[in-house]
Each structure stands twice: as C-alpha cells, then as structure tokens.
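Problem 12. The chain below contains 196 residues. Write out its predicted structure in token notation.
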Amino acid sequence: MNKSDSFITNKKQINEMKNTQKKLKAKHFRYLDKEYVKNPDRFLKEIVHEWGLNWSNNFNYLINSSLYPPMRTSTTFEYGFIYNHLAQMIEVGFVILRKYKLRPMPKADIFQFNCQEVFDAEIENSSAFPAKSLCAFYGFKSRKEWLAVLDDLLQRRDYTEDNMKELPLDHDYIVIREFLVKLPLVLNEIYKRGAL
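Solution.
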C-alpha cells in the first residue's frame, strides 16, 4: 500500500467516524431504548411527566445515601430502578442536546451569570432555562463521564457505617448532586414547553 492509498483509507475511516457521530443510534447508548433515541419527546412524556414521581427527591436520596451510609433508611428503596432512570435521563438529555444542535458550555463559563436578572430567576425563583442547563450539564461532564459518576455511586453503596471512613471525599459531588437533582426539572420544563 502506498502513501496515497493509506491517506484514502484514513480519510474513509474519519468520514465513517463523523457519520457515526452525527447519527445517534441505540447502539451508542447503554440505558436508553431505541424508541427513545428516535423520539426523546416520548421519553419526556411517558417517564418524566406521566409517572408523577418526584425524580429530584429520589435522585437526591440515591446520591446522598451512596455518599454517606448513615443516611440509608431501613425502608425499601428501589436503588436499581432509580439508578436506571437517572442514567436514562442523562442519555435522553444528551439526545436532546444533539437534536437541537447545542454545544456543551465551556467549563469555565458554567457557573457564570451574564446578568443579575438571570441569576435571580435561576437561583432565587428556581426558574429553569433548559438550553442553558443542558449546555452546562454536558459542559461540566461528558455523557460518558456522567455514566462513570453513576457507576462510582453504585460502588460507594458497598461501604457501610463500619468502613465509611475509607470512603473517598470528592468535593465534585457537591456540584454533581446539584446537576443530577436539577436534571428531571429541566427535562420536565422541556416537556411542558413542547420544545427546547
């Protein structure tokens, strides 16, 4: 194979990679079903909105009890069920981000507010700005990194009150918790608006 053949082969591989990246397929997702990859609005309607669960409270408990074993209650809590739906919401948020051709926000800009009005609306009035929120969410961590966070939370569930001193303290989890608790609110807002 000469240099020009090698160049053509590499160019084909690059073009194939670009085409794969542009078209979201079910094989690119670990938790999200094919039907929801094709139609994320259906997921928002069926799972986020119609189930009537307070997803934010469930996610908050999942995170806090994973990080601090004494918070675990003796009552039944379906960790696997909640974990799976949190993972699906992370993936459906990514599908929506791509659907609307939004780019993740640079990490340095995530916690910056352009004006006092936006700060007041978001922080004090709990208003959701879905496009800004999704761009910030995937700017802070990529979809792959968010799924790694969930895997880490599951591993932390192996710790008990007896060996919790060995649990690594990761300050990123303060921000991670805020993002994950806010995610279902953002997705529900997208559903209510009918679009981003």
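Discussion. Residues 23 and 98 are 9 Å apart (CA to CA). Students who got a different answer should revisit the alignment rule from Section 12.3.
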